[in-house]
Amino acid sequence: ISFDVRVDEDHPWGSILNAASADYTAGAGAPRSLESDGIEVLGERVSARAMGPPGNPLAPEGGIEDRNIAVLEDGRSECVFLHELVNLGNFTDTIRVALADSMVIPSDWTVEFIDGEGAPLRATSRFAAVIGPVEIGGTRIVGLRLSATAERLRQFAGRELEFLVEARSIVEPLSRNGVMDVIVKNDIPLL
Predict the structure, then answer these.
(1) Strand 128-134 and strand 93-99: pairing?
(2) Contacts for 159 with CB less than 8 Å, ≥ 6 apart
(3) In angstroms, rounded to a whole number, what is the distance separating the alpha carbons of residues 31 and 93?
(4) Does residue 150 contact residue 76 with C-beta atoms inside 8 Å?
(5) What pTM value is reported for the model?
(6) Which of 8, 35, 31, 42 minimizes the C-alpha distance to 19?
């Protein structure tokens, strides 16, 4: 025998007693009643989110589809990466977005997280900000804006600069998902 428990979204977190009973008529026509042992079900918050390029927040983390690439044109003094965040958890969550590979970003660059309209998000440090609350199944566009002088923005070693941006639950910080952002210089030929 198996039991399924459906819990309403507005049910408080905690224990739920699940028991089953059945009334039936026995072979001799005698009414009978049967009651199962109670099973305690613990309803808890489950934090889950996905973040990827706009239109593809569920892109497999680490895969080629889970990358944002921006070509750095001559004279440009800023670079913006947009990400789509979706709350896959079972509660309205507040999310911390962070530049996980902050050591690769030069100290004289300005780092700012923005919403889909370009307005700054509430920063919690130079490399992190908070977005939310994000309702169950809700999505948000989160941007990362990097800026410096046009000359300084191009002064990183090699042809491209790659770094990880992560989304973590404020409630369950170990629950995370990330996307890779890549800046590519446009004046270095591909081989």
Answers:
(1) antiparallel
(2) 184, 185, 188
(3) 50
(4) yes
(5) 0.75
(6) 35
Q: What is the DSSP secondary-structure string of 160-186?
A: EEEEEEEEEESSSTT-EEEEEEEEEET
> Per-residue pLDDT for 172 more than 90?
no
pLDDT in tens, 70-88: 988 878 899 999 999 999 9
Residue 173 has pLDDT above 90, yes or no: no
In terms of Cα–Cα distance, which of 50, 60, 55 is closest to 116?
55
Burial class of 162 by CB neighbour count within 10 A (0 to 12, 13 to 18, 19+): middle
**Cβ partners under 8 Å of residue 13, min gap 6:** 43, 44, 45
Beta bridge partners of 115: 142
Helix (H, G, I), strand (E, B) or coil at 55: coil
